[in-house]
């Protein structure tokens, strides 16, 4: 398993690649791949430390399920739905962060943006068909990952 720390420049490039691929996906299929920045972020996670992907998946699933439960009690749509899903995702990610930080600090090396990514994915899972959203997110993330990993392995991109 390849784990490497990525530089700030590579992180910016990863997010930019994700934006380009996400926009292409949206224009071609009219599906958002878990949000515009998500695939680039997930590609960076896979390049830097793939073990963190399990944590993102677990928090995303918990956020999605929690949102579906809240929707049975409260009418959520539009901006309120977006805010509620993101807040729930950040709350769950922060809770996991506080519980696991002491024992597994490597899971949170680039934590800032990672706190909102599960909420962004869960929001798209609520709004779009689940299977199509997962497929779009997976394909665009894979594209971002392959380009980033190729750059790192070919030593075209800086890494530490």
TrEMBL record:
Q: Which residues form a coiled coil?
A: none
Tell me the Gene Ontology biological-process terms attached to this UniProt entry. capsule polysaccharide biosynthetic process
This protein's superkingdom?
Bacteria
Transmembrane region(s): 12-32, 52-70, 82-101, 107-126, 133-157
For this UniProt record, the keywords arranged alphabetically read as follows:
Membrane, Transmembrane, Transmembrane helix
Q: Which GO terms describe its cellular component?
A: membrane
Protein name per Swiss-Prot or TrEMBL: Capsule biosynthesis protein capC
Q: Native species of this protein?
A: Kutzneria albida DSM 43870
């Amino acid at each position: 398993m390849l784990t490497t720390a990525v530089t700030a420049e590579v992180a910016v490039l990863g997010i930019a690649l994700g934006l380009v691929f996400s926009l292409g996906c949206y224009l071609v299929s009219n599906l958002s791949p878990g949000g515009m920045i998500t695939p680039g972020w997930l590609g960076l996670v896979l390049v830097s430390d793939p073990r963190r992907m399990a944590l993102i998946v677990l928090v995303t699933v918990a956020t999605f399920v929690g949102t579906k439960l809240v929707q049975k009690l409260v009418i959520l749509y539009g901006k309120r739905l977006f805010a509620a899903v993101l807040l729930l995702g950040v709350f769950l990610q922060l809770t996991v962060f506080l519980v696991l930080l002491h024992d597994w600090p490597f899971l949170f090396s680039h934590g800032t943006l990672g706190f909102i990514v599960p909420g962004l994915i869960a929001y798209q899972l609520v709004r779009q068909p689940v299977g199509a959203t997962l497929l779009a997110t997976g394909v665009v993330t894979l594209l971002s990952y392959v380009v980033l990993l190729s750059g790192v392995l070919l030593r075209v991109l800086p890494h530490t």
